[in-house]
Design a protein that fits this description.
heterodimer; A: mainly alpha; 2 domains; 16 helices; 71% helix; 0% strand; B: Cytochrome-c3 Hydrogenase, chain B; 3-stranded antiparallel sheet; 8 strands
């Protein structure tokens, strides 16, 4: 375009600006609208305005719950699309590729194009497949995924239902996903699918155990199964987070994170759909919308995994300098909370989203760095290492709680020490990264982002 | 194979026959493996080749001697330079032709660059088959530079058709030497980085160490050659032991598998040997560029190539083992018989013997570590 006339250049610039605006509108508008929906709807389902009859209040709550359900499932779909974009951008940077750059600014709208393409494809059901189960399998997966959003805490008051058995509920409904995968593997009537389904069953069921044991440790420390209760038992500052406050909870986080990777079928545990071994595993025979559902769930699960990890180990939505009394004061006595309370909710929502995004990024890094382990190694890792260590840390955490009752300062000291060591470790990690980049003659360059 | 299909009827549902290929992401082309599995464990894997047969040897009898050169590219399109060289040497032997030294050196340079490119694909796809996608693209990125260099040398990026009967097609372009040396400086650092990126990754080593071990005697019995043979501890390299071209004048070491992390001749040895060979190839290219003699790059070749009746056999050390051409002339302008012997074909034979007891995922590692290229098997 060196000797192009000024007119097309101008129109190209205008076009680029329009694309950028559209991308920003979608990229910021969609999440903001959805978060706004969560922000408004979740408190409404607990409000009873004065003077309203019982029937009207019930109707209001029912309406709020229905709309909230739609908003949350849409949120799951949108966030999984955006995760795909983020993952592709990160991986292309890691692999010296260009990556998504066509649809929308920086290729952001690619996930929408991909989804539309998938929906327009032929919906194929193999002739020899089990007709009913093959069609039913994606819905098991989708339901198992969507139900977790009921108990995910987005902010101080932003939770669809703060169940007393919150974390227990989340772990149980996630197990529904494996039913769908196993059905898909069986119903496809393909050997590759069957392999994938059997691997998924073995893997997900095995890794539920260390994940469950590791999740017991924050429960033990908080004394409650409720998601909000677990977060309220932690503080806003890093040294008040469970992962850093107690060494056993730190170990539990590592176990939980590994087990969640395995349950979410992410590399290095992507055995059920191991592309280079099983073609596409349980997904081999799926196409079009059903395939899209599996992908939506796989990437949406990243959010669920990260959100649960943040809730259990990293203090959830806790905002610095805003304890429960501040929230209570801002809420006021009326049925409709005061304006300051809404501001605090937005703040807590932002903190939660930021922490979750960091953990999600960690998962993306792991995926594009590690190779895949073998089936027997996957099993031995679970049963020989994760399960015993999870048990040991559970027992350790019990003794730790006993220690805390006699020496309450121990928690603060460990928290500060752990925070300091994380900071020092992070510094050395960055320095090593910089040196490794410099050793090949490259330089740190973020300009092309 | 027939027996296996018959047994399928007899056996109950404990075992199953898996058609691993011909369209499968990790068969590296169109190859089929008939795999008899018991769950994830392989009882037997029988390679079924021939899907990519294009009668290249027969074509060699139909076109004239120089006309066959572009077809040799298609024998092994990942490392086409060696196929060129092997055929050129065989015909030169028929013609009793002396090659000018500059041409010898240019052949060595182009071949070693090509070896690096081929090995980059090999180690990259191996990492990809194990599940790590990133190293593959890092390898391809470096290969891209080599492709650029070879494109500057001969105008083609994949099917080079660079070697000619009697020499090479083009001389070194201006500034090419400095460009190549700059690339090699970068590449030596890249090899270190690549090791850090994937070679000694804990998960990667666990997947490859002591998997599909091929002992030296067995490798010899099955006629393995090249890196696959050396990984089993057999110290044999055509470039050193039966020298040809410029190689007697160049100094290099021949890496031999010695169980870098596991047993001698396991998948990791075959993988890591290729990493070491890339370093040696880089060394050879450097030396050859320093010492390349002046002079003609093409011998005086008669316009009509019409060798006396007779036969000639050539061996070159290709990226996937010994590549040989056997050319029989009946005194006319067309060869009476052209036969190519390639490393991949013999490597396929050993899959049958090594595979029992492996997991399905190990079979993928085994195929990748043997570095087979489908067109080279079938020709």
């Amino acid at each position: 375009m060196t000797n192009a006339s000024p007119a097309p250049a101008k129109s190209a610039a205008r076009h680029a600006r329009r694309v950028l605006l559209l991308t920003l509108a979608v990229g910021l508008g969609l999440p903001l609208a959805l978060f706004g929906g969560v922000l408004v709807l979740s408190p409404i389902s607990g409000i009873a305005p004065e003077g309203w009859s019982e029937g009207r209040v019930l109707l209001l709550h029912a309406l709020a719950v229905v709309v909230l359900a739609v908003v949350l499932v849409t949120f799951g779909a949108v966030i999984s699309g955006m995760t795909v974009w983020w993952e592709m951008r990160v991986s292309s940077r890691m692999q010296s590729r260009v990556g998504y750059n066509r649809v929308g600014a920086a290729g952001f709208l690619q996930w929408i194009a991909d989804a539309v393409k998938l929906l327009l494809k032929e919906d194929l059901v193999p002739a020899d497949a089990d007709q009913i189960l093959f069609r039913a399998a994606p819905y098991f997966v989708l339901v198992g995924f969507a139900l977790t959003f009921v108990a995910l805490p987005f902010g101080e008051g932003l939770i669809a239902a703060d169940l007393d058995v919150g974390i227990f509920y989340v772990l149980s409904v996630t197990a529904l996903v494996v039913v769908g995968i196993l059905l898909a593997g069986w119903a496809s009537n393909s050997k590759w699918s069957l392999f994938g389904g059997m691997r998924a069953a073995a893997q997900v069921v095995s890794y539920e155990i260390p994940a469950g044991l590791a999740a017991m440790i924050p429960v033990l420390m908080a004394g409650t199964l409720s998601m909000q209760g677990i977060i309220r038992a932690q503080g806003p500052w890093p040294w008040q987070w469970f992962a850093l406050e107690s060494p056993f909870a730190g170990l539990a986080f590592v176990i939980f994170f590994t087990a969640q990777l395995a349950e979410g079928n992410r590399t290095p545990f992507d055995l059920p759909e191991a592309e280079s071994e099983l073609v596409a595993g349980y997904l081999s025979e799926y196409s079009s919308f059903r395939f899209a559902i599996y992908f939506l769930v796989e990437f949406g699960n990243l959010w669920v995994m990260s959100a649960v990890a943040v809730t259990l180990f990293f203090g959830g939505w806790q905002v610095p300098f805003a304890g429960p009394d501040v929230f209570a004061a801002a809420r006021g006595a009326g049925a409709i909370p005061g304006p300051a309370w809404w501001g605090l909710e937005v703040l807590s929502l932002a903190v939660f989203v930021a922490k979750t995004a960091v953990v999600m990024n960690l998962i993306v890094w792991v995926r594009w760095t590690l190779p895949r382990i073998r089936v027997d190694q996957m099993m031995s890792l679970c049963w020989k290492y994760l399960v015993p260590f999870a048990f040991a840390s559970l027992v350790g955490a019990l003794f730790w709680q006993l220690l805390l009752t006699s020496v309450p300062a121990a928690g603060v000291v460990t928290g500060l020490l752990a925070t300091a060591s994380v900071l020092v470790g992070g510094y050395f990690f960055l320095r090593l990264t910089y040196r490794n980049i410099a050793a090949v003659g490259d330089r740190v360059d973020l300009s092309n982002w | 194979m027939e027996k296996l299909i018959l047994r399928r009827v007899e056996t109950d549902s404990e075992e199953m026959i898996l058609n691993f290929g011909p369209q499968h992401p990790s068969t590296h082309g169109v190859i089929n493996f008939l795999v008899e599995t018991d769950g994830e464990v392989i009882r037997k894997a029988i390679p079924d080749v021939g899907y990519l047969h294009r009668s290249i040897e027969k074509i060699g009898e139909a076109v004239g001697y120089p006309g066959f050169m572009p077809f040799t590219d298609r024998v092994d399109y990942v490392a086409a330079m060696f196929a060129n060289e092997g055929y050129a040497i065989a015909v030169e032997k028929l013609l009793k032709l002396e090659i000018p030294p500059r041409a010898q050196w240019l052949r060595a340079i182009s071949c070693e660059l090509c070896r690096i490119a081929s090995h980059l694909i090999s180690v990259g796809t191996m990492a990809m088959d194990i599940g790590a996608f990133t190293p593959m693209l890092h390898g391809v990125r470096e290969r891209e530079t080599i492709n650029d260099l070879i494109e500057a040398l001969c105008g083609a990026r994949l099917t080079y058709n660079y070697h000619r009967i009697g020499g090479v097609a083009f001389d070194l372009p201006d500034g090419w030497r400095d460009r190549t040396l700059r690339f090699l400086d970068h590449f030596d650092k890249f090899l270190v980085e690549f090791d850090r990126l994937i070679s000694f990754n804990e998960v990667y080593v666990k997947r490859l160490a002591k998997v599909a071990v091929i002992p030296g005697a067995m490798a010899r019995d099955y006629g393995l050659s090249g890196p696959n043979l050396r990984a089993s501890g057999v110290d044999f390299d055509v470039r050193r032991d039966l020298p040809y071209g410029a190689y007697p004048h160049l100094r290099f070491e021949v890496p031999v598998g010695r169980g870098f992390v596991g047993a001698v001749g396991d998948c990791f040895d075959r993988y890591y040997l290729r990493c070491l060979e890339m370093g040696q190839s880089s060394r050879i290219v450097r030396q050859a560029l320093e010492t390349v003699p002046e002079g003609e790059y093409m011998a005086k070749v008669p316009r009509r190539i019409k060798p006396e009746a007779g036969e000639a056999f050539s061996r070159v050390e290709s990226a996937r083992g010994q590549m040989s051409y056997y050319v029989v002339s009946d005194g006319t302008e067309k060869a009476w018989r052209v036969r190519a012997r390639t490393g991949s074909f013999t490597a396929m034979g050993i899959v049958d013997a090594v595979s029992p007891g492996l997991m399905v995922a190990d079979l993928v590692a085994l195929i990748a570590s043997l570095d087979v290229v489908a067109p080279e098997i079938d020709r």
